[in-house]
Amino acid sequence: MIYVGTLRHTFIKSCATTLVPQITLSPRGPAIITPNGQTILNREWVVVNQETGGFVAQRHGFPQMARIQTYTSGNDLVVTAPCKFEFTVPLKHMERERLQTTIWDDRLLAIDQGREPALRLSEFLDTDVRLVRMPADTVRLARSALKKGAEYGIGFSDGEQVLVTSSPSLLWLNQNLLTPGVYVPADRFRDNIHLMTSTEEPFFEEAITRMVIGGVEFIATKLCVRCVMTTHDQTLGHVTGKEPLKTLGALHRNEKGAVFGAQFSCSLTGTVRIGDLVEVC
After folding, report:
1. What per-residue confidence (pLDDT) applies to 268?
2. 141 vs 243, residue with greater confidence
3. Is the pLDDT of residue 149 over 80?
4. Which Pfam families does the entry link to (predicted)?
5. What are the structural domain ranges in the chain?
6. How far apart are CA 232 and CA 60, in angstroms?
7. In sequence order, what are the residues at sequence separation of 6 or more whose Cβ sits closer than 8 angstroms to the Cβ of residue 186?
8. Cis omega (within 30 of 0) on the bond before 244?
9. Residue from 190, 193, 197, 192 nearest 3 by CA
10. Predicted TM-score (pTM) of this structure
11. Does residue 36 register a pLDDT over 90?
């Protein structure tokens, strides 16, 4: 039996993830529905360099971004770094200045979130940045959608809709780490869906081509090649060492690098909940 163990949502790209009881899949990508009915895309906000408009992430030398926590309160998104700052931005889409934003090969106009977020984040990161939001009237297509001529979207994720990992893979990794005395927790991999099972082999999720969860069909698009962010403590916001990249690079990799997890797209809309059974097709 395979079932959904945890679900994660990320409000601001490269900041702290949030454990949630369910996620909704839509043509614009995975999302959550807030208590007041707002649909919030996974990674709907992103921090960008004020001068270039390029996205700013932990992998660019800012591991402290992991300490930036987010949660909804009424009609606002609260953004806070404990003992450092706290501010809010409205959940309702507001038409403000649109800034040229670059996320990998994609360029789009994103909505600036104002002076206070820019000031607080710039002070925290010690570089001039702005916080921007994906406009409600914009659909950024996933990379695999572009290749297929399809039209399923994403927020400011790297390129695909849904990242899936599993408990057998995480267990295997921690049992085979090449560095003694180290433990790598699940949050290092910043997945959307973490599958639980006691009957499958490690990395079984990477061999799945199609699966159905809660009536939603998931189609495999690519394996997930991991970056330096997996070496960052996602609670304290600092670099921990070379694991898990050292082990994955030696024992579980492809021609592009260390691999952990698989990316999927969704051909149907619906809701996935913790505890849902997984049908591998």
Report:
1. 74
2. 243
3. no
4. MOSC (PF03473), MOSC_N (PF03476)
5. 2-7+143-280, 15-137
6. 12
7. 6, 165, 170, 194
8. yes
9. 197
10. 0.96
11. no
| Domain 2-7+143-280, CATH class in plain words | mainly beta
Query: Contact 18/11 with Cβ under 8 angstroms?
Result: yes
What are 276's two structure tokens?
């849902």
Where b means 16+ CB within 10 Å and e means fewer, 48-67 reads: bbeeebbbbbbbbebbbbbb
pLDDT, mean of residues 142-146: 75
Q: Which amino acid is at 155?
A: G
| Tokens read off for 51 | 């001068």
CB atoms within 10 A of CB 102: 15
Quick one: how many helices (H) and strands (E) in the chain?
Answer: 4, 24
**∠ CA 243-196-16, rounded to 5°:** 50
- Residue that has been written with the tokens 């390129």 in this structure: 159
Q: Kindly tell me if the per-residue pLDDT of 146 is higher than 80.
A: no
Report the alpha-carbon distance of residue 103 to residue 164 in Å, rounded.
Answer: 22
Residue 28's pLDDT is: 85
Structure tokens at 19: 């454990």
Residue that has been written with the tokens 């005395």 in this structure = 181
What is the residue-wise DSSP string for 205-228? GGG-SEEEETTEEEEEEEEEE--G
